[in-house]
Write a structure and sequence with these properties.
By secondary structure, this protein is of the alpha/beta class. The protein contains 15 helices and 12 strands. The strands form 2 sheets. The chain has a 7-stranded mixed β-sheet with strand order 1-7-6-5-4-2-3, with helices on both faces. The protein binds pyridoxal-5'-phosphate. It is an enzyme of class 4 (lyase).
């Protein structure tokens, strides 16, 4: 079946659930055994069924099966946050003394985690552009045990060629992990392009309604995912609550419809911003002037809902523009129904030293817009009146 159908049906039948059409919420911490013998069988793995919700829960299992299907993996695990998914896979793939090769721009807390791993366990990392075969080959070290990439990169929307990296990684037998949060599984499927693991902050597009913090990890090999479930996930314990899993199941049902509208709205907002005299530069994956447009087209189904743009006049004008908005809310996070705007230099990337930040393209005038599901003309109208207020 196609993705649109899987998002709604995969992993659930109404049988044995009192014919409930909606997936039931099993809000329980533990499961009662019929007798001592059954409890022993479940612990020994001889009988399927519930034991304790950190080890598995029927509501969470539906979410995991659905995610595995739409990312074309063999297994999925749900977590209490995107960062719990990131930390679980990095702990699984590394040991003291190893090296992790990353794209130059990665999510701030992932960067924080890499620094903890370096300081405490001597697991080093390098942040590279990874745009040519020579450069990727030269960046791989004898102790590289994992390649960790994000694309598009936050907030500059640079595109990393997933196939180029996975082809080289395969020769060296190094697993590749892709943070696919910005695209959602509807727009991009890294496992189809050779990645071994794909993860999401489900807080963003997968939930889509701005009311849950959650993470998901999908792997292409079932045995390895089972192993992570029974080791790092179980013992580090960063699991999702049944209620949050239930909300994600509800969110997933409309993912395809929402992503189509996010992308359509973003294209219209992009056209407005790209021709506005107060916009100094603009970054959107499906911008034909983007040097990586061909790579974006190759691996992404549509441009997605995120646009970054620099306002002429730097930080002062960028902040004035934000304050002049009324429909558009000033908030970090992304992928919600509401259009959100944030200022990376003083918000999501404020911990990055200024020199590095500017080298990454995150200038003082840069703003990141997560285009929501409102009427696109209302979004554009709000931006227009805010620019008019700037009097540049
Ligand atoms: C938000 C985000 C994360 C972290 O996810 P949480 O759910 O906030 O823990 C990781 N990667 C990317 C790209 C994100 O946007």
């Amino acid at each position: 079946m196609e993705k649109e159908t899987l998002l709604i049906h995969q992993g659930y039948t109404t049988e044995n659930h009192h014919d409930s059409l909606a997936v039931p919420l099993y809000q329980t911490s533990t499961f009662a055994f019929e007798n001592a013998e059954q409890g022993a069988r479940r612990f020994a793995g001889e009988e399927a069924g519930g034991i304790y919700s950190r080890l598995g829960n029927p509501t969470v299992n539906v979410l995991e099966q659905r995610m595995a299907a739409i990312e074309n993996g063999e297994g999925a695990l749900a977590f209490g946050s995107g960062m719990a998914a990131v930390s679980t896979i990095l702990v699984h793939l590394t040991k003291a003394g190893d090296h992790i090769l990353c794209t130059r721009g990665i999510y701030g807390c992932t960067f924080g985690l890499l620094n903890i791993m370096k300081e405490k366990y001597n697991i080093t990392h390098s942040l590279e552009k990874l745009t040519t075969e020579e450069e990727i080959e030269a960046s791989i070290k004898p102790n590289t045990s994992c390649i960790y990439i994000e694309t598009p990169i936050n907030p500059t929307m640079e595109i990393v060629d997933i196939a180029l990296i996975t082809n080289i990684a395969r020769k060296h037998n190094i697993p590749v992990v892709v943070d696919n949060t910005f695209c959602s599984p509807y727009i991009q499927n890294p496992l189809d392009i050779g990645a071994d693991f794909v993860l999401h902050s489900a807080t963003k597009y997968i939930n889509g309604h701005g009311d849950v913090i959650a993470g998901l990890l999908v792997g292409k090999n079932k045995e390895e995912m089972d192993k992570i479930r029974s080791t790092v996930q179980k013992d580090f314990g960063g699991i999702i609550s049944p209620f949050d899993a239930w909300l994600l199941i509800r969110g997933l049902k409309t993912l395809h419809v929402r992503m189509d509208r996010h992308s359509k709205n973003a294209e219209e907002v992009f056209s407005f911003l790209a021709s506005h005299p107060s916009v100094e530069s603009i970054y959107y994956p499906f911008d034909e002037k983007n040097p990586q447009y061909e790579v974006a087209k190759k691996q992404m189904k549509s441009g997605g809902g995120l646009i970054s743009f620099a306002v002429k006049g730097g930080k002062e004008k960028a902040q004035q523009l934000m304050d002049a908005l009324s429909l558009i809310k000033i908030a970090v996070s992304l992928g919600d129904a509401e259009t959100l705007i944030q200022h990376p230099a003083t918000m999501t990337h404020s911990v990055v030293p200024e020199k590095e930040r500017v080298a990454m393209g995150i200038t003082d005038g840069l703003l990141r817009l997560s285009v929501g599901l409102e009427n696109s003309e209302d979004i554009i109208e709000d931006l227009k009146q805010a620019f008019d207020n700037l009097k540049l």
